[in-house]
Write a structure and sequence with these properties.
Two copies of one chain form a homodimer. Chain A is α/β, with parallel strands linked by helices and 208 residues long. Chain A has two domains: 6-54, Helicase, Ruva Protein, domain 3; 67-207, Dna Topoisomerase Vi A Subunit, Chain: A, domain 2 (3-Layer(aba) Sandwich), CATH 3.40.1360. Helices cover 46% and strands 12% of the residues of chain A. The first copy, chain A, is built from nine helices and six strands. Chain A has helices at residues 6-15, 23-35, 38-54, 71-74, 89-98, 125-134, 148-160, 186-194, 199-207, and strands at residues 56-57, 64-65, 79-86, 103-107, 139-142, 167-170. Chain A has a four-stranded parallel beta sheet. A two-stranded antiparallel ribbon of chain A has the order 1-2. In chain A, a hairpin with a 6-residue loop joins strand 1 (56-57) and strand 2 (64-65). In chain A, helix 1 (6-15) packs across helix 2 (23-35). Chain A is globular, with a radius of gyration of 22 Å. The interface between A and B is large, with 58 and 58 residues.
């Protein structure tokens, strides 16, 4: 694309660095920004710079945070005996959005994947071990990807923690709510039959 | 979605103001920016602010520009006897990207659409008339939408210019290059048969 304005060209160039944004979409965004008020656009760009420059990671759980301790770790109302182990901050946001979990988190920063060169040293596993040893953690809830790598990571962490007096659980696997049986993959369906629940358990889950 | 960081929340909020960007896509972009270097993100937000704060519109053709006169109007190599009339700056970018047109432009800012309250006063029609009267324009090339409104606008402008000694043309309508006949709409197909071209004309067009 040929632009008659260097300013526009630069802005389009910057936008098209974002994931899933090509030149045409970038131009659409830029022209949209052009129609917005100056204050709004400055608010937009200010929010992005501020976010990148001021963001920290929580010293305890490695979640993103506005200060050294994230709001979740700092909250007195949280159940400090439960720690949910997740891969990324995206997972924290997803679980928080359910508004059903009241414990703490630990962000690993990925899962074990030897082929990609990701071993335990690349992940926040040592600090999880420290936390479990020194804090009042009673349960680790493993909420990792339902893949071979995810399962491997769960087993690795479970072995690391074997000498410590904690309970390790994983999130339930099964058919999605509203999902149709015929579209579920065989592995999920087989597992959900093998791990079937008594009906009263099912009713109480629906009610909660 | 619930974020543990106000900075992230603000950035997501701002991103989701853009067209076609929902909360989830906005979060994806924000997390991508978080992974980028600080300088890169500041470059990104700087380019946006600068673009919005410094952009002008060309006094002559109403195209976006970095100064009072756009690079196209200012260029000495351009054929000043041809003016291509388009709806938006997006059309200027599209035509410029073909690298086949060497004349000037005139951005109307829309097309006549009485139902939406857009009459000749809302468009840059008066300034087009001035340009044709005072400058060395010999041909107006109407490159407007192939719709009823577009055609109405073409006829309106042609009538406005009727006392002036210029030639008014419109861009060719027909089957798109690489398009398949069976998928073309009836109107286009009927018109492209009625306005068929002699074969030597066709060959010279392919060659150019």
């Amino acid at each position: 694309m040929i632009f008659s304005s260097k300013l526009i060209e630069d802005a389009v160039q910057e936008f098209s660095k974002l994931p899933g944004i090509g030149k045409k979409t970038a131009l659409r965004m830029v022209l949209h920004l052009l129609k917005m008020e100056k204050e709004e656009v400055n608010g937009f760009s200010g929010a992005l710079s501020r976010m990148r420059n001021e963001i920290c990671f929580c010293n305890t759980c490695h979640n993103i945070s506005d200060s050294d301790q994230c709001t979740i770790c700092a909250s007195p109302g949280r159940n400090k005996s439960q720690v949910c182990v997740v891969e990324t901050i995206r997972d924290v946001i997803a679980i928080e959005s359910t508004q059903q979990y009241n414990g703490l988190y630990h962000v690993l920063g990925g899962i074990l994947s030897p082929l990609d060169g990701i071993g335990p040293e690349q992940l926040n596993v040592a600090s999880l071990h420290e936390r479990v040893k020194n804090e009042e953690v009673e349960e680790l809830i493993m909420a990792l990807s339902p893949t071979i790598e995810g399962d491997t990571t769960v087993y690795y962490i479970a072995r690391q923690m074997s000498e410590l007096p904690i309970r390790i659980t994983t999130i339930a696997r099964g058919i999605s709510f509203g999902g149709e049986l015929e579209y579920a993959d065989e592995m999920t369906l087989a597992r959900s039959i093998a791990k079937r629940l008594p009906i009263d358990n099912y009713v109480s889950m629906k009610g909660s």
